[in-house]
Design a protein that fits this description.
With about 350 residues, this protein is mainly β. The protein is about 5% helix and about 40% strand. The longest helix is centred in the C-terminal third of the chain and has 8 residues. One of its GO terms (biological process) is purine nucleobase metabolic process.
């Protein structure tokens, strides 16, 4: 598995928004006009696309993405994707990595809102990205400005070709989280599917901090936040913006699969933040009040805290500290939305 990296050239919406087309959250590639060379599901893989020289299958060169055959008729190829949750869309990434002589010359993206698994025949599709010229072997970050929330997107290729990855960055509708939770139940305010996101982290060498906000327990040691070995004083940290302001009642720190590399201790600070920039939060967070005092951690273990949590009232952000370094699989912050 490739170690994920943050693209320094990626726009801000890729960091502040959730990839609503992530299959780990429940997104699905539902249908495509053609997938002769490579299946549509591969286009949604959360890992970066790879190229394997000399790898072929029954249809030709194996490619890491969705690829249609060479079109010999009129028309365009298309694929419909069901998003993980109803949400507003802030931008997309049409990634043609490793597609050079076989990328589409252009592509467009439309979206609709539908209650069913598949969009109805009379679904109203809205153009989010008009037909846009593409280049081979590169990311195409395209901002979207549309106020409505959607459940499905349709990417159209003009006329055919291959797309390595499709990312649809947006904000999940928090009302959906409330609708699916039991009456009076606490809501995980740090869950990515509910709209939480990692503002920044001081180090993400072996695993992205955003992995901590994904659903379920980690699949392996690569499915978590892991920093490099610290060789200087201090500790590692990550700042998380909650899905909604809320009062945190229960905390879980899960070190699943981290055995020789779990942190020795952890703590949480929190605050209700209004205004400012992500950069300003880094300095502010050092002085936020303590939500959870330092707690010892164990390898490959789910740690639950309730009585240890300080009464800070409603908060919007937390700073998660690990001492001195290491890996954490999941962070859960259950609370009452304010």
């Amino acid at each position: 598995m490739a170690i994920p990296t943050l693209d320094p050239n990626a726009p801000d919406f890729t960091r502040r928004s959730l990839n609503l087309a992530d299959p780990r959250l429940g997104a699905k590639a539902l249908a495509a006009s053609d997938e002769f060379f490579a299946p549509k599901e591969r286009m949604l893989d959360p890992q970066p696309a790879v190229f394997i020289p000399g790898k072929y299958d029954d249809h030709g060169k194996w490619m890491d993405g969705w690829e249609t055959r060479r079109k010999r008729t009129t028309g365009q190829d298309w694929c419909i994707v069901k998003l993980a949750r109803l949400g507003t869309i802030e931008g997309v990434d049409i990634d043609t990595s490793h597609f050079t002589g076989n990328f589409p010359p252009a592509a467009s993206i439309e979206a609709c809102a539908s209650r069913g698994e598949f969009p109805a025949d009379d679904a109203q599709w809205h153009m989010l990205v008009a037909p846009t010229a593409l280049q081979g072997n590169q990311h195409h970050y395209i901002p979207v400005r549309h106020p409505e929330a959607f459940t499905h997107v349709r990417i159209t290729l003009f006329p055919d070709g291959g797309v390595a990855r499709l990312r649809v960055y947006g904000r999940p509708a928090f009302e959906e989280a409330l609708a699916t939770s039991e009456q009076g139940a606490l809501v995980d305010l740090a869950a990515a599917i509910n709209g939480a996101h990692v503002v920044t982290a001081n180090n993400q060498h072996f695993g992205l901090a955003a992995n901590m906000l994904m659903p379920g327990r980690g699949a392996n040691m690569g499915d978590g936040w892991e920093t490099r070995r610290r060789r200087e004083p201090g500790n590692d940290w990550a700042i998380v913006a909650l899905a909604r302001p809320g009062v945190i009642r229960k905390i879980e720190v899960d070190t699943a699969f981290f055995k020789g590399n779990y942190p020795d201790r952890c703590s949480l600070q929190a605050a209700y933040v209004t205004g400012g920039t992500d950069e300003s939060l880094v300095t502010q967070a050092m002085f936020w009040p303590v939500l959870l005092p330092e707690q010892p951690l164990r390898m490959d273990h789910q740690h639950l805290y309730e009585s240890e949590i300080a009464a800070l009232g409603a908060v919007t952000h937390v700073r998660f500290n690990i001492f001195p370094d290491g890996g954490v699989s999941r962070l859960r912050l259950w609370g009452e939305p304010a």
